[in-house]
Write a structure and sequence with these properties.
alpha+beta, 3 domains, four-stranded antiparallel beta sheet
C-alpha cells in the first residue's frame, strides 16, 4: 500500500492514461488548497500550453481519494471514476463556462503569510513574494460571514483570468485586507478572562509587562498584520515600546514589549515548542521571533537584527 505522497504521485502519473483518446497532450496539475485549516491537494488537468482559450477544469481532492484507498477501495475503480468525472466536468464546462466577472474579484483579494521553507512546492505554482523568512501569498475571499471565511488560493492561472500581475495583487491585497480583515488587538488577559469564573482575579500589570494578541474577527490569516506597518506602529505607540512578535500561527500573533530582559532566543525556543506540540502543522508559521522598530518602522528577524 502506498503512503500518501506515493499515492499522490501515482495518481498524477496515471490519470491521463485513464482519460482515453483526445487527452494525451493535457497536463496534470496538483493544486494545494486549505480546508478547515488543513493543507490539502487537488488534482486537475489543463489544456496544453500550445492551445489558446479558456476551459473549466474540474479539480478533485487527492486527500479524499487517499482516504477511500486506505479504507479498501480498488485503485483501478477509483481511477476510472476520477477519469469519468473529469471528462464530464470538462464537457459541462464547455457549455456552461462561468461568466464570473474576475475584475470584481479584485475587491476581495487579501494577504496571507506562510512559511517559505515549508511551502516550496506550493509556492512554485502561485504568485508570491518574499518577506523575511516568510512568503506573501494571495487569497480570493469568496464569503465573509459569522461562519468564517471561504476563500480560494490565487494560482498563476487564476491570476491570469483576473487580468492581474503579482504587483497588482499585492496592491489590491494591501487595500482590501484592512477593510475585510481589520486587525483586532487585545490584551491576552481579556481573552483569558472569558474562560475564568467570576470570582477569579487577574492582577493588573504595567503595559510593558503585558502580553497581547493580534488576529481579526474571523481568526483567519491574522498573522498578515505583520504586513500592515501602520498597525504595528500604532501598537508600538500605544504601549510605548518597540515590539517583539511571536507567530502563534498563520492566524494570530502574540505581541510583547521589547526590553533587554526578554531573550529572543528563549522566546524562539518557546515558539518552536508550541509549534511542535500545540499547533496543527497546517497552521504553523515560523519558529522565528520578530522585532518591530518604531524608529526605523521595519520588522527584523531578531537573530539577524543582532548580527547587523
Amino acid at each position: 500500500m502506498h503512503d500518501y505522497e506515493g499515492f499522490k504521485k501515482q495518481v498524477a502519473e496515471d490519470i491521463i492514461g485513464y482519460m482515453g483518446d483526445g487527452y494525451e497532450t493535457y497536463e496534470v496539475k496538483i493544486i494545494p488548497y486549505e480546508k478547515k485549516g488543513r493543507k490539502c491537494d487537488g488534482i486537475s488537468i489543463c489544456l496544453p500550453k500550445t492551445v489558446k482559450g479558456r476551459c473549466v477544469m474540474p479539480t478533485l481532492s487527492i486527500n479524499e481519494l487517499y482516504e477511500e484507498y486506505v479504507h479498501g477501495e480498488d485503485y483501478e475503480k477509483q481511477m476510472r471514476r476520477v477519469a469519468k468525472t473529469m471528462k464530464n466536468g470538462i464537457k459541462m464546462g464547455k457549455k456552461l463556462l462561468p461568466e464570473t466577472d474576475y475584475r470584481k474579484a479584485k475587491e476581495k483579494i487579501v494577504f496571507q503569510l506562510v512559511n517559505t521553507a515549508s511551502n516550496e512546492e506550493m509556492l512554485a505554482g502561485i504568485p508570491h513574494r518574499g518577506f523575511l523568512d516568510l512568503s506573501v501569498i494571495y487569497r480570493w475571499g469568496i464569503d465573509f460571514s459569522d461562519n468564517g471565511v471561504a476563500s480560494v488560493l490565487i494560482t498563476n492561472d487564476l491570476m491570469e483570468l483576473m487580468g492581474l500581475d503579482e504587483e497588482e495583487l499585492y496592491a489590491c491585497a494591501r487595500e482590501n485586507t484592512m477593510r475585510l480583515l481589520p486587525p483586532v488587538f487585545k490584551d491576552i488577559r481579556d481573552l483569558i478572562g472569558d474562560f475564568m469564573d467570576e470570582d477569579e482575579f487577574i492582577p493588573d500589570m504595567p503595559k510593558g509587562q503585558r502580553m497581547y494578541v493580534i488576529t481579526n474577527r474571523y481568526n483567519f490569516a491574522g498573522a498578515n498584520a505583520m504586513l500592515l506597518e501602520n498597525v504595528l506602529y500604532n501598537i508600538s505607540k500605544e504601549i510605548d515600546s518597540d515590539l517583539l512578535i511571536l507567530p502563534a500561527s498563520i492566524n494570530e500573533l502574540i505581541i510583547l514589549s521589547a526590553s533587554e530582559e526578554k531573550d529572543p532566543e528563549v522566546l524562539s525556543g518557546i515558539v518552536s515548542e508550541i509549534n511542535q506540540y500545540d499547533v496543527d502543522k497546517a497552521d504553523r508559521l515560523s519558529d522565528s521571533v520578530y522585532y518591530y522598530s518604531s524608529s526605523t518602522r521595519r520588522i527584523y528577524i531578531t537573530s539577524e537584527r543582532r548580527m547587523a
